[in-house]
Amino acid sequence: MDSVANIILYFVVAICMTVFSVMAVTSRRILRAATYLLFVLISTSVIYFQLGYEFLGAVQIAVYAGGIMVLFVFAILLTRKPGDMSAPLESHRRALGISISVAGCVLLLLALFYMPLLNGVSLIEAINSGNRITMHDIGVAFTGTSRFQYLLPFEAVSVLLLACIIGGVVVARKR
Amino acid sequence: MDLSMLWYLVPSVIMFAAGVYGFVTRKNMIALLISLELMLNSADLNFVVFNRFLFPGSMEGMVFTLFAIAIAAAETAIAIAIIVNIYRAVGNTDINSVKKMKY
Predict the structure, then answer these.
(1) Most confident of A52-66, A127-141, B50-64
(2) What is the mean pLDDT of chain A?
(3) Which residue in A114, B1, B63, B81 could disulfide with A172, CB within 3.0 to 4.6 Å?
(4) What is the model's pTM?
(5) Are residues A72 and A149 part of one domain?
(6) How many domains would you assign to chain A?
(7) Is B44 within 8 Å of B70 (Cβ atoms)?
(8) With an 8 Å Cβ cutoff, is B44 touching chain A?
């Protein structure tokens, strides 16, 4: 039995997430779509906090809601006038999109509801049965090379980010 | 009432379907990128939920999500650089107006 506060929090966040993700792809003003995406990302980070991954929620807010959204807003303001509406969708394109996404959604939901893996463990049991993940655990996991330690991918990501910085400057600079 | 795993997977499915819809229908490249972020985000959420409910003693799903977030950030930065460059060359960011590469 989960606490009432957890259930209420879950419903608020889940409704926010579904409504804003649908609005983000249907809104015709691109800046509003970016704002709805920001709301979706923040709701996801709230779910991470609720599941007990505080570090991950903080990373989600800092990287996605902080970094990527600023990039999006910059790019939108650089390439369009604010208040511009995109052209209305052609009907065959919309029909194609709706049929693909609804078919995929129904298929995935059917698969979910018939999957025996989804056991009846409730949130509070799951949180209590695992040990709390501290910053020390995360630091140990990222700075070793033995089993369940990820120094090599960590270094690879740092090289990737360096390549991304150089690539971004090279691609977007003015000639 | 128990909040089991299914409760967390259903919004994730809807988010993914919304991302697919946006990816198929939109023509602006930034809108395509927004739909892509939605799909990536729902996959990240799935990793974390499976980690919490099925393997609560380990943290591999969380680590994978951290790497996915880092790579998604890099990918978005490069994609936005390319979009700004295309805007400079073509004059808009419509996906239909990009028909040829440099040569």
Answers:
(1) A52-66
(2) 87
(3) B81
(4) 0.90
(5) no
(6) 2
(7) no
(8) yes
